[in-house]
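#structure-requests
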Amino acid sequence: MRTSGVNLRKCGRQLFALVAALGIAQPLIAADATPATQPQAAPVVTRQLPPAGAPNIVVVLLDDVGFGATSTFGGPVATPALEQLANDGLRYNRFHTTAICSPTRAALLTGRNSHAAGVGTVMNSATTYPGYRGVLRDDSATIARVLGQNGYATSAWGKWHLVPDWEATQSGPFTHWPTGVGFDTFHGFLGGEADQYEPTLYDGTTPVVRERQAGYHLTEDIAEHAISWMQMQRSVDPARPFFVYFAPGATHAPLQPPATWAERYRGKFDQGWDRLREETFARQKKAGVIPRDALLTPRPAELPAWDSLTPKQKRTSARLMELYAAFLAHTDAQVGRLRDALKEMGQYDNTLFVYIVGDNGASAEGGLLGSSNYLGDLQGLQSNLASFADDPQALLGEHSYAHYNSGWAWATDTPFQWTKQVASHLGGTRNPMVMTWPARIRDHGGLRQQFAHVNDIVPTILELTGIEAPASVNGVAQRPMDGTSLAYTFADAKAAERHTTQYFEVYGNRAIYHDGWMASAFRGRVPWNVISAPRNTDFAADRWELYDLRTDFSQGRDLAAREPGKLRELQQLFDIQAAANNVVLHNPSRENTQFPNLAAGRTHFEYRPGTIGIAEKEAPNTKTRSHVIEAHIRVPEGGAHGVLATLGGRSAGWSLYLDDAGVPVYRLRIFDAEEITLRGKAPLEPGEHVLRYEFATTGAGLVPGGTTRLSVDGKEAASATLRRTATMYSIDETFDIGLDTGSSPADYRAPYPFTGVIERVVVELL
């Protein structure tokens, strides 16, 4: 039945009369509107673009690379992309990071000191002190947010490590994910490291679930994504410049280079770390990246001499360094692909390219002997590295979670003392940096020796783009920048440095730089004993050292006894800087590490299909206590296979699944220390079934063992004794229902989705 326009209008007026009687405001009917005598001008719609001439920006941040690793700065690893960028721009040999991952990233992206921005320590050891909460503050907006609000397209690729664990799930909130702090696009991982072959990835905020392919490598993957995104931006909107933050996560452990790259370094490190350090030192002086009068600091007494190792230890140790070198060389090649893509697009000359070689010094966390599964070693679960002595080739591949010896980390930090985590000394904080912008930087291949810090990058970008640091972002007044623009160094190699004061602090290791002097206090906990307590808990008892870096490039001559007045002056300045930046010298305890936790206080958990990507710390903590995992499933005609529930990954974790034949399996791997497989007796028939895994702990010790049992429909199928458990499996893998989003703790290849029906998975902590 058709309704005429007249009748419709009449009904509408009756309705509006009723609305008016009720006192409700009436909308205007177009047919009743009085036409304007003159056409009204349409509002002008404009969009924000940066100031004319603003460049594209690419910021590259590598992970765990020492000052003396790359060939560009005298090291043993060929880095042609870094070399080419340096030849087109400037090398900085007095650039500094914070000595550890998350704080460096916070300072890099905000232009503030890391504690002031809320991230004074690595995310997985945060405390509730304001400077250590591990949550970026709203008054310290990221450069992505500022650039985006001024017309830039923004993207982040690779490692993030700035999301607190309780937000690292699909339930959100996503406030501190890359897309929540100003990045239009994100493709990468949230944790501190990733398996290069089977990573746990996110596209924006959505877990990436894909079939694993032979030859896949994470660093190559994110390079391809970044290049495609840049090309898309230029194709769709060439008037809009772009910002690329490329943080591959390499060369953080696990050391997993493609096999073909590892062969390039076979036999290159048989001389050992003591000799390598001497060779690097000589090359650095010859290349001019360190002064001719620089000192080579001695090996710490805590590190073994290379000649003290047995022949077998030397073979495996040399192989581990080969893996590291190959990993770094391969990563540099991916950065080279970004550079080549910019050239092909005709955008290289108009791109500010910042290449920061490490978020801290080299990592000594692999231990004195190196490791084939370093996270287990950190928990006292010794890896089976000795088994690789006669076949070091086996360390290369998907089933190794290797990390090199602490001695190699020290060697690749040449000529400085110590390594990552040691914020008191330059081995932890001095990293190479190259800055290129062919259209602006004229001194191609030049060396810059002014003091610089990672918090200088944001002020540099803002000055070069012509964008002012905002006083307010999204209604929040902004903290002033702590960094200083480095643009003043472009035209004058001898310009007086402008960043004259900078404090450093990580795990109580601390230092203060001021006008060429540095005072340093090392707490005494060696950086390969990550979970151990410091030698003392009295910060006032720490011994301070004093260095005149104006004449002592490598921090090699301690002047504390000779210049007590200068030392006191710098100690007082450190206290002032610490108070201004929320630095608190503390020993973490239960009282100051209580954060929101999605599993806290719960003993009963019930999950449905679609639950994936839950951070390990937010999942049911089944690791060291008695528990039950029960899966209620339905097997269709023809059978089923796939993952029912899983936590962790290749290095450590568990999975309850049906194998390709449809047989129930529970597999647990605890690094190289323990492994059990409980297998059912036959494939499951079509219909409904209940699989039940039980662990009853002995309760003895920090990581107690116990008995395990797998039952199918109430009948025991298999059992085993577990000698020990672990306190953690990973810092990047997740808890998933119905498939595996990361690497696999079992024999299947992730994601291995379940082909039947999961009604629910119940976890009970007993």
